[in-house]
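Ticket opened by: R.M.
Priority: normal
Category: complex prediction / small molecule

The reporter submitted a protein together with adenosine monophosphate and asked that the result be attached to this ticket for the collaborator who will pick it up next week. Submitted input follows.
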Amino acid sequence: MKNIVIFGAPGSGKGTQSDKIIAEFGVEHISTGDVLRSEIKAGTDLGKTAAMYINDGKLVPDSLIIDMLAATLDNLGKDIKGVIFDGFPRTIAQAEALDTMLAECGTKVDTVVGLEVDDDELIKRIVERGKTSGRADDNAETAKKRLDTYYGQTLPLKEFYIKQDKYAKINGVGSIDEIYANISAAIKAC
Ligand code: AMP
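Result attached by the on-call engineer:
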């Protein structure tokens, strides 16, 4: 069982690279952003609450996200090769909750793939993605708020995982295949 966290700012390429990791390693994909967007589409209470935070570039409160993640993990069942966590954890509280949930299943986070991309490139990518994604939060104004949220609440996790010797730093600028070659090597090495 291999559990991978793909970590990085909005626009760093987590979703794109997750698809390649799934194709090579056969792990299950949990993207909390995707789960929230399907809740919004379905018009659930969680979706209605989440939309207010998402559209303002803020994080959805930990308690809601952790419960949602626990339910999503439960639904995967036991007979799996591992999970790639995409967009989760985003706070220290979420990382601690993830460690507890995985420990209860006798497993752990094996490696954290950290995609590092400079801010100008991130904003450029998000605005470009907004032309086709249909996402209300893929525009320059919300992107800047999302980056502030990332630096304030999510980046501290890098240190959290470096201390556990789990952080694999990956240059997130270059061709998709070049970036993926380094990710694949880091996963194989863990
Ligand atoms: P993403 O698709 O990962 O960029 O997520 C889009 C938005 O969903 C984020 O900007 C947050 O508002 C919300 N979101 C996704 N994952 C989380 C999380 N783990 N914790 C809190 N909010 C989240």
